[in-house]
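Supplementary Text 2. Reproducibility record for the structural model of the 643-residue chain.

All settings were left at their defaults, and a single model was retained for analysis rather than an ensemble. We include the record here because the model underlies the residue-level annotations in Supplementary Table 4.
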Amino acid sequence: MPELARDEQQNSAAARASAHAAEATDGKPRSRWSSHTTFLLASIGSAIGFGNVWRFPMMAYSYGGGAFMLPYLIALFFAAIPMVVLEFALGQRLQRGHVALVAHIAPRWEGLGWATVVGTFLSAQYYQTLLAYCLVYLVNAFRDPQPWAVEEAARSLSESSSSLDGAEASSGLQPGSGEAGGETEADAALAAVRSFWREEVLQVSSGVDETGGLVGPLCGWYALVWAVVCLGACDGASSIGALNKLLMPMPFAVLAAFFARAVTLPGAGAGIRTLFSPDFAAIWSPSIWVAAVSQLFFGVSAGLGTLTTYASFSPPSTPVGRSAIIVSLSNSAFSLFAGGTVFGFLGFISHTTGEPLESLVQSGPALAFQVFPIAMGLMPLPQLWAALFFLMLLNLGISSAVSMTSPLTTALCERFGTTARRVAPPLHLLGFVSGLIYVSRAGTYWLTLSDHFVPMFLTIVVGLSQCLLVSLAYGARRLLESLPPEDQRLAPWWAFCWQWLLPATLSLLLLAQVIHEGSSPFGGFPGWALAVGWVYSLGPLLLVPLFYCAHARAHGGRRGGGVMGAVRAGLELGAVRARGRTSSSAVPEVSRVALASNEMSRVAPPVDEDLFSVVVLTESERPGAAPQSEPDHAKGSNEMADG
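Retained model, structure tokens:
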């Protein structure tokens, strides 16, 4: 009997979630994934992106090598996976895009939802620049010789690498030595790669304060990238799903081929050991923990509004725990795989040229665009492998870029009751025009600055806010009880993470990183540029007080609003429970406030209102009041938040 009652309760929860789906879309059928596999591919495509190839290896090396892996793995299981479960559960339970979801839970805090999707869209602006770089290299990959290589330099490198197991190369060249005292062809190849990157692709200026105008060819490719991403976002789940079915399998195969080649080269083992050799002194620095959490959050797309939006396209009865684990582990596995490949080639280049590996590891995307062109020369048919590699990066990048623009597209569609085909073109045109700074001659400086501040702060702030909303407003137990039976086994663990572990951990890490940034400014940038970085990262959060004040003014400051209203409601609820009046035999009447701006919710008019839209006790529930029967309109209502 208890099992039957539990099944009926879960079936009822799923039915209510389906009803909420109709309400959230004004009765229109919500866009759906064609299958659960499509949802997984889309989520993995959002998680695995360009950053796995260059950002993870660079951060792992910069923050202590193998020492970075310890906080990374701890953060994976204790922060990233619980956060992905939370976002999947919210989107799937409420069947709304991210902004509508936040507005439904806590109307006054709707600005937090808008801040999230706007911040994610701003991140897409610099992310598309990386894809424009890929297109430049892809077009030049078919040239013979390739423009980033010295004539026959790749062949000479390959020949020398095959004979370096002996004391001398057959040509008489040794690692780090030159012909007749000159530089080796390996040195020339490395110089050619760097020259093509800085002078042909970036046409880089002398500093962040010298914009130097737009880079014409790069600007054209940037426009093309935005057009492709716009097409991917135009049809919601159907176009995103089709795109990821086409793009996702290829990167794994291509990276496996490069890894197989890397481990056969002399010096590759030393490079891989350098990546995973621990500097345990770094573990005690708060920065390494912040870097691990931010890398994981940005990697799996947590705190960006993407996962809640994608999950809202799944049926309410779909299990979320297993999906969250698959997505998170796929992202981390690909990152480790890419890190081993990159540092395998770095070890070979260092071994061949004699240049210290430390000088080869550069911040920003240069790590991928300088290491892999040399690696391609070590493969048979270098034109083919160059084309496959940059197609792989485009595959990774486009799926992630679509996931960055789709939350804002979905939010605007739900807000104004229109379709993605009408919203996406003007929105993506605006993104292109306002992001042209990244394809100027100072663009690489702005890209580096943006990539530091946005993942480091915005994702952590949003993740922390989501945990607080669920804990204080919606109710962790209420959310968990709506999940399928498969997800109930770990429900106590998820609740503990959402209510206690994540809020405490993210708060401490955020405070520590703010202090660190104040004492150690990033990257030698001037003060005004760092100020722009802070505004770029946290500026969208200004929408939170704006929406809060607008909502409070629109509702005239009703009684019970604000923090004290929430506290009074919680105290009264505690008093009722203490008197034993919440037993199953005598359930008191409860009216849940379900306010949402602009017709986001279609429930009965609220009895009262407070800061978090939590439970409001009616007169019959107040201590000392006589119990009353449950009115008809309250029957079948959602479970009470355990706030």
